[in-house]
Amino acid sequence: MATIRKLANPYLNYSSSSSFGTRSSSSEPKFIVDLRTSNSNRLAGSKLSFVINPSNRGSLCVKCSQVDGNGSSVKRTTLHDLYERQGQSPWYDNLCRPVTDLIPLIESGVRGVTSNPAIFQKAISTSNAYNDQFRELVQAGKDIDSVYWELVVKDIQDACKLFETIYDKTDGGDGYVSVEVSPKLADDTEGTVEAAKWLHKKVERSNVYIKIPATAPCIPSIKEVISLGISVNVTLIFSLARYEAVIDAYLDGLEASGLSDLSRVTSVASFFVSRVDTLVDKMLEKIGTPEALDLRGKAANAQAALAYKLYQKKFSGPRWEALVKKGAKKQRLLWASTSVKNPAYPDTLYVDPLIGPDTVSTMPDQALQAFIDHGSVARTIDANVSEAEGIYSALEKLGIDWSFVGSQLELEGVDSFKKAFDSLIDSLQEKANTLKLVDWDGYAIGYYGRIFEACNKTKGDSFEGDDKDFFKFRVGSQEVIPAFEEAITGMSLGGIRSVSCYSKFQCGYI
């Protein structure tokens, strides 16, 4: 049965969200069409909305949209097709406040989030959204490192909440949010294990991934953390040799766990792509031969295709089958660094050619928008493995040392994250210094320097007196006028600064 009823206000603005939250509105009169079955339950999966064209009252426009289980309309994008048709999970490589900005992305098909120290450095240092929590933490006496982690953990927890539905629907197969241990621990095996344990307990969400770098000292850390039942996103993988070591660490950790049910211990291996081309292209341009120049922009995807071949090999056979019997899940390959660094290359260069089942592609804004707009959905990762092997070998023959490429990019990646982390800590410390408690002792002089008799005070006398305590406030707390805060910010202990203030009060001018 279908019933049509007019809205109470037929000219209410109608908003429709695109995949990135862009809104449009109209003032056309609206009617609701209510489709019901014989038992009066709403039909799931479809919705009709009738819009009367004001210029032609006799015509009706019928619009149809898919509806999810909660009754809200869902706009399909290439991200939905990517997951449903090819088994690749699209993730978003960014996180900032408010985390509710992720909602339209989730509706567009995003199924997880990755973060790193550089992302948080940008988010926290350029946004006012963290100010209130930051002020509370500093005033509570927290040290800056603790303040940083409190800010980060809140974002991670809030994001995990948004992705819980996906995590539950896929039985822990998707819907993860990644947070990285301190990049300063990249050479500290035991320190990384302890940090991962602490961070996992601190976040306390089943769909969190603890990110650990794939440095040589952290390979044993990965095994240990996995054996403790903690899910891990292994990051900064730049070479096939290191990737194989990462897979082995995951398998070793599962075998050492002693758990009878391994289904909740999962992992992804973040294999970086665009940065490989950035370095190799420079090496090829230095060689300068036509053959070398023709291979520019091909190294990263060729190596990625071979990484997928290695993935298929390692997650098969008797050893893996024994773990599957205990519920183990494959450590999915995750393509990271998918944004194009060279503007001459297609903007989906590190997304379109790397599509395959049981993989993840994490994309920053530019790559994500480009793929939604004009990306192609097809299985491409193993479409031409022989060509990838040929490119890989040709680069070696030209003198490209793949082990050097991997080591150099790893050093650069770790260093980049360390610098971002240190920069953020320094900026947070500087910001905290402006919130220090200020005790001040001042006196007033009159207009043009004449002594002014303050209300109930002796001419020229100090505001400090037997009948009045110091006035105490915190800079940034908005307890005094902004000009006064600005004047005293940066003063050292015992310093003196002259402040001119012209304000009209009932007792005169000061």
From TrEMBL:
One Pfam family from the record: TAL_FSA
One of the GO biological process terms: carbohydrate metabolic process
Main location: cytoplasm
GO cellular component, one term: cytoplasm
Domain PPIase FKBP-type: residue ranges: 440-510
PROSITE patterns, alphabetized: FKBP_PPIASE (PS50059), TRANSALDOLASE_1 (PS01054)
Reaction(s) catalysed by this chain's protein: D-sedoheptulose 7-phosphate + D-glyceraldehyde 3-phosphate = D-erythrose 4-phosphate + beta-D-fructose 6-phosphate; [protein]-peptidylproline (omega=180) = [protein]-peptidylproline (omega=0)
Name of this chain's protein: peptidylprolyl isomerase
Organism: Anisodus acutangulus
Lineage: Eukaryota, Viridiplantae, Streptophyta, Embryophyta, Tracheophyta
